[in-house]
Design a protein that fits this description.
By secondary structure, this protein is an alpha/beta fold. It is built from 14 helices and seven strands. Strands 1-7-6-2-5-3-4 form a seven-stranded mixed beta sheet.
């Protein structure tokens, strides 16, 4: 039996996924020649495109009755920062866009959030490709390789003077019975307390990010984000497809200025573990009170969200119709799909190629000046 909930879930996911494909085909792919001419301008335009798209999932959640409630400190889009967040479910990212929209207001500047994700995600047609083009960082869990990738990307962002917010999930995976069992074994082995609402964080990636940015004098702050679900917890994308959405999702933001963040590896490790201990206590209280604070701040549906909803919905419908009726658009789609599939198979991703080309472009530009 097809329920209203299931139909809503299908529509929600179709619009969400369709908007990414439409943006990729209509806007992102036509920007590719700009990379050859000027990588800095390409990166600026790419970041701007993605920030405009992020309004759409925010508007979709509003339209489908999901309230995202944010409390704590505002996030400055003009800071270079690391964001650390607990990973309660596989679909935390689905609600994070709305949280970032609220957390960055009332500033008019768009944030430049980039996730640090598992490498297989970059292969997903559509979302994986657009995230590659937007400079998301992918890791393989092989530290020597990951260290090189992270360092190259951070050096690139510093060279561009792009004030970027980098989001990392230190737990490495979402909270499930199996991941909790592994976390408990780690705690027992290292004489640490057992957590019920979080997993013990892995510190290697975070400490490398922090020390690299600190060494470049490019870390303004660390933001500690805590996500909590007071009613229903959607564990995977299947829940979203079935329309099983929470009524509310809560985020609490704590800003720690870089001057209060240790700059040595051992100090950073202990600092992060301390943040997670406090996060566990916060979530324990949240599980009883169903809120982080009694007076969160929440912005209503704005005109920008309404415009974004109309624009991206029309673009998505247009892309679907053209894929059915237009031969040239079908060929355009096929050509770019083949290009990114080949990138996935024969390279480490578009972003790494972009970075490599940037340094060659920069050296060539310098040689022309002399």
């Amino acid at each position: 039996m097809v329920t209203r909930e299931f139909v809503c879930g299908i529509i929600y996911c179709a619009l969400w996924y369709g908007s990414i494909v439409a943006g990729f085909l209509f806007i992102a792919c036509p920007l590719l020649p700009l990379l050859i001419l000027s990588p800095p301008k390409f990166r600026k335009c790419g970041d701007l495109l993605f920030s405009y798209w992020e309004l759409y999932p925010t508007a979709l959640l509003e339209m489908f009755g999901v309230k995202v409630i944010v409390s704590g400190d505002h996030i400055s889009p003009n800071e270079s920062a690391i964001l650390v967040m607990n990973h309660r479910t596989r679909v935390d990212w689905n609600f994070l866009w709305a949280a970032m929209y609220q957390a960055c207001m009332p500033s008019v500047a768009a944030h430049k959030l980039k996730f640090i994700l598992k490498d297989p995600i970059r292969h997903i047609p559509g979302p994986g490709w657009i995230m590659q083009m937007n400079g998301f960082l992918y890791i393989t869990r092989r530290w020597e390789e990951d260290k090189g990738r992270l360092s190259r990307t951070l050096d690139y962002l510093v060279a561009l003077q792009r004030h970027t917010q980098l989001l990392i999930f230190p737990e490495g995976t979402d909270l499930t019975p199996s991941s909790k069992e592994k976390s408990d074994k780690f705690a027992a082995k290292n004489n640490l307390p057992h957590y019920s609402h979080t997993l013990h964080p892995k510190t290697t990636g975070f400490t490398h990010l922090a020390r690299h940015l600190q060494g470049s004098q490019y870390l303004d702050a660390v933001y500690d984000l805590t996500i909590g679900y007071p009613d229903y917890v959607p564990q995977s994308e299947i829940d979203l497809i079935r329309g099983r959405m929470p009524r509310e999702v809560h985020f609490h933001v704590t800003r720690i200025p870089s001057s209060e963040v240790p700059n040595d590896e051992e100090g950073l490790r202990k600092w992060l573990e301390g943040r997670w201990s406090a996060k566990e206590k916060m979530l324990s209280t949240f599980s009883e009170e169903k809120q982080f604070v009694t007076d969160p701040w929440r912005f209503p549906m704005t005109i920008s969200l309404r415009i974004a909803f109309g624009f991206w919905t029309i673009l998505t419908i247009t892309a679907a119709l053209m894929l059915i009726t237009s031969t040239w658009f079908q060929l355009w789609t096929l050509a770019h799909a083949i290009f990114f599939v080949c990138l996935s198979i024969f390279s480490t991703g578009f972003s790494q190629l972009e970075i490599g080309y940037y340094w060659k472009w920069k050296n060539f530009s310098k040689s022309k000046e002399h």
